[in-house]
Amino acid sequence: MAKKLFIKTHGCQMNEYDSSRMADMLGESHEMELTENESEADVILLNTCSIREKAQERVFHQLGRWKHLKEKNPDLIIGVGGCVASQEGKAIMHRAPVVDMVFGPQTLHRLPDMVNKSANHEKVVDISFPEIEKFDHLPAPKVEGASAFVSIMEGCSKYCSFCVVPYTRGEEVSRPLHDVLKEVEAIAAQGVREVNLLGQNVNAYRGGVFTGAVAAASANTNGLGVIISDAQGNDINNTGDAEDYADLAELITRVADIDGIDRIRFTTSHPMEFSDSLIDVYAEVPELVSHLHLPVQSGSDKILSAMKRGHGRDEYIAKVKRVQQIRPDLCMSSDFIIGFPGESDQDFQDTMDLIAEIGFDMSFSFIYSARPGTPASDLEDETPESVKKQRLHILQDRINQQAQDIARKMVGKTETILVTGKAKKHEGQLQGRTENNRVVNFMSDDLSLINKFVKVTVEESLRNSLRGSVVDPELAY
Ligand code: SAH
Ligand code: F3S
User: How far is the CA of 432 from the centre of ligand 1 (A)?
Assistant: First the structure.
């Protein structure tokens, strides 16, 4: 009987992508099948997040809850991956002896080997940063549905003063352009219509382009079209001169050319690297959605500077305005950190003013959490927790209100949605997502519309979704 794999994922979309690749990996090497039921698993993996203290605590609570499974089945293998693994390493096993394997975000491709060792009751820790090697060893991805993530780069070199990512995921490393394009082609052939290009800082993407002598090595692939080394056996990722790189703008243009791909998103980008070439792509590539997630964190210049974000409030506004000029229907979302050390009432007000000025539609907003080892963790923090909670509440209320306004303005308009499946609660209805990621439910029993783009007229805006009707099912593509 096939061995069963249970994966629990905490944190960001990068982790979700990595988890699905872990399943692909062990599916191929050990013919493991995913299960939703942890008590029947032979291998349990926890893909962790350390962005805030609460996320980190969840890891040990979760491991505690799995202790009884190990007592029942001593052959059960428990592995911890992701950013907490990267940060804590072997210490995880001291605190949670049920753990057999600890692996970082860059070593998940070595899982098959680690599982073999663990099966012999050997404890394994591998949290090294072997650059982007992992992608060369992953099997072709399996996707379900018409929307998929594709990781294009790893790590971050920005070192914002509050953030652990550069320490847990390493510095920025981009996958070669052709490697990414091959992956998109492979998933487009499986029916994917929408890709979300992923990375901690995707607009820092600089993917190697094979030219001249290096191109000769392109025959040297691992059978999946992924280049493993050049003629001399050197890893050719990230080699070459400046002109041998494609930036995010070029990558988007090339992805848009791939048959079947009609919608492109990217997450997450940094305002500092929101380049002119990327802004131009909004004019040139209609497949790129009019929905931009561009984290600003704060609207106060003083706080932005203390966060070491590398830009001020006005620069942010100027860049957004330029995209809005090209795409007047642009929907904006952002991450916010509330209660960064030294945030005064005025600083918070600056953030609220910025929210009104940009008209943000959605946010990931959290109270600042001091992370060990980051420069900001040493800063004096005098704002009481109750004030921070109140500020967070005010901010989230305001953004929700703006989101409702935007949804109401969509009523009467025609939107193109990517149909994802049957509506969750409503019999006889299908649902899909607009460019700005809103769910639209509509009456239809035509299941052939699923995974296609369909034009709908929005008829009503409800609390968490929209209701619409199909303009002409014949126009579905
Ligand atoms: N690359 C992205 C951020 C990735 S981290 C960028 O350019 O901003 C995801 C989000 O987690 C950040 O945007 C930030 O809002 C939040 N975050 C990171 N460190 C945090 C901390 N110490 N406390 C609270 N939120 C934090
Ligand atoms: Fe973190 Fe700043 Fe990079 S928030 S992921 S260090 S851009």
Answer: 29
Torsion of Cα atoms, 295 then 297 then 300 then 305, to 10°: -90
Residue 219 placed within a domain: no
- Does 331 carry a binding-site annotation? no
**263: number of CA atoms within 13 Å, CB side?**
26
Q: Is the pLDDT of residue 126 over 80?
A: yes
Query: Residue 471 maps to which CATH number?
Result: 2.40.50.140
Pocket lining for ligand 1, CB < 6 angstroms: 51-52, 156, 162-163, 165, 200-201, 268, 270, 295, 297, 335, 337, 366, 368-369, 371
Give tens-digit pLDDT for 24-42.
999 999 999 999 999 999 9
Largest CA distance in the chain: 63
Task: Please report the atom of ligand 2 found closest to the CA of residue 159.
Answer: 6
- Which strand (E) or helix (H) includes residue 13? helix 13-30
Query: Which residues does ligand 2 sit against, CB inside 6 Å?
Result: 156, 158-160, 163, 165-166, 200-201, 270
Q: Are 27 and 173 part of one and the same domain? A: no
The number of folded domains in the chain is 3
Q: Cβ of 238: how many Cβ atoms within 10 Å?
A: 17
Unique residue bearing structure tokens 């008829």: 459
Ligand 1 pocket test: which of 205, 335, 360, 389 has the largest number of ligand atoms within 8 Å of its C-beta?
Answer: 335
User: 216-256: per-residue pLDDT in tens?
Assistant: 333 333 333 333 333 333 444 444 444 589 999 999 999 99
> pTM of the entire structure?
0.88
Name the residue at shortest CA distance from atom 1 of ligand 2. 163
Cβ-Cβ contacts under 8 Å for 7 (sequence gap 6 or more)? 19, 22, 23, 34, 44, 45, 46, 47
Strands 153-154 and 173-174: antiparallel
CA-nearest of 437, 203, 198, 160 to 297 is 160
Range of the structural domain that residue 316 is part of: 147-209+236-373
End-of-domain residue from the set 322, 344, 373? 373
- Listed residue (170, 165, 7, 168) closest to 79, CA to CA: 7
pLDDT for the residue 212: 46
Residue 12 in marked binding region: yes
398 is a domain residue: no
Unique residue bearing structure tokens 């939107």:
415
Q: Are residues 263 and 357 in the same domain?
A: yes
Domain boundary residue among 351, 373, 395? 373
Ligand 1 centroid – CA 335 distance (Å): 7
* Residue 61 domain-assigned (yes or no): yes
